[in-house]
Amino acid sequence: MKTNSTLNKHHCRIGGMGYYLPEKILTNQDMEKIVDTSDEWIKQRTGIESRHIANANELPSDMALKASLKALEQSQLKPEDLDFILVATLYPDRIMPNTACELQKKLNISNIPALDISAACSGFIYALSIANQYIQTGIYKNILVVGTETLHHVTDYTDRTTCVLFGDGAGAFVVSRNTNPEQGCIYHQTLNAYGEFGEALYISAPGARHSSKKERTTEKKDTCIQMDGQKVFKKAVQILCDTYTKTLEDTGYTSTDIDWLVPHQANERILKKFCKIANFPEEKVIFDIKETGNTSSASIPLSMGRAVEQGKIKRSQNILMIAMGGGMTSGSLLLKY
Ligand code: COA
């Protein structure tokens, strides 16, 4: 089971992981008091029971810092050892400077590149795949990759079709160069986008398109997530199936070679549908939406970190991560943890 990437000189290994969930919890019972919904409807349609919500002065970079410090500690590295910071987020601290620079400042380090990645719920996979390239080419040794979201700022709590879905959180990986792929490497990656599905999931403001409107008014809905739920649902299932098939075709792996699927946690039903169509065993899927909701770019590092903490995912196992999100974007990484 050798793929081209195992022939490389440098390999990208996850050295440490960390995650952060804000203290405040919004349960389905709380949602029942906000909109016309029910615990039963939310659980049955999404698998979600509660979500964490950041407090007013908790910024994406603050949550990223907490997750990053844990990831650094686990990898036994100091902030000064980092060569590059990548932050995936769909709602940054500010438009400028980017959140990666804000995080750099909070880590008390300077003089290394810091970049935000905007690919919605696929953002973390995009960021990790970029980190993989810089490590494989030997340019950088240690890279901090973070997904961090305060989605409550872009959630319309008068719209029951979206507000029950989203939560806040952050997850971070420190990835490092190593020479032995058996000790951890990324075997295979895919990135993709389907711009024609842009209108299925979007936020209008702030943005030049919204600002350039002749009669510019900003209503709550302009600054919040707008979604065609059914369209996104169908496309998400298709993306999971196509990405999984491509990974198997490119690598020669079969489902038995994959120990865990760590997917973007958008909706439990999407994942179950994928399992049925692709004939992938549900027991090998990390389902982690119940207590967090959809945390967009934070969801994969969050659920991976929690699954390792719970003793499900162990070193040397083969992990397939797949994400899909607004854009629509998608991406996957097959790696040895
Ligand atoms: N509580 C109660 N009823 C609700 C509701 C809620 N929170 N949200 C919608 N409904 C109602 C609708 O108004 C509709 O009522 P009607 O039949 O009287 O018109 C009914 O439930 C069915 O709506 P529908 O949109 O068909 O539900 P659905 O089965 O498609 O589930 C989603 C809705 C949003 C859960 C589902 O489409 C979904 O998960 N889509 C993907 C979302 C996603 O993953 N986004 C992020 C991608 S990264």
Written account of the structure:
The protein is α/β, with parallel strands linked by helices. The chain has a single domain (1-337), classed as Peroxisomal Thiolase, Chain A, domain 1, CATH 3.40.47.10. It has helices at 28-34, 39-46, 60-74, 99-106, 123-136, 160-163, 208-211, 229-251, 268-278, 299-309, and strands at 11-20, 24-27, 50-53, 84-88, 114-117, 142-149, 169-178, 185-193, 201-202, 226-227, 260-263, 318-325, 329-336. It has a five-stranded mixed sheet with strand order 1-7-6-4-5, sandwiched between helices. A hairpin with a 3-residue loop joins β12 (318-325) and β13. α3 crosses α4 and α8 (229-251) crosses α9. It is globular. Bound molecules: coenzyme A.
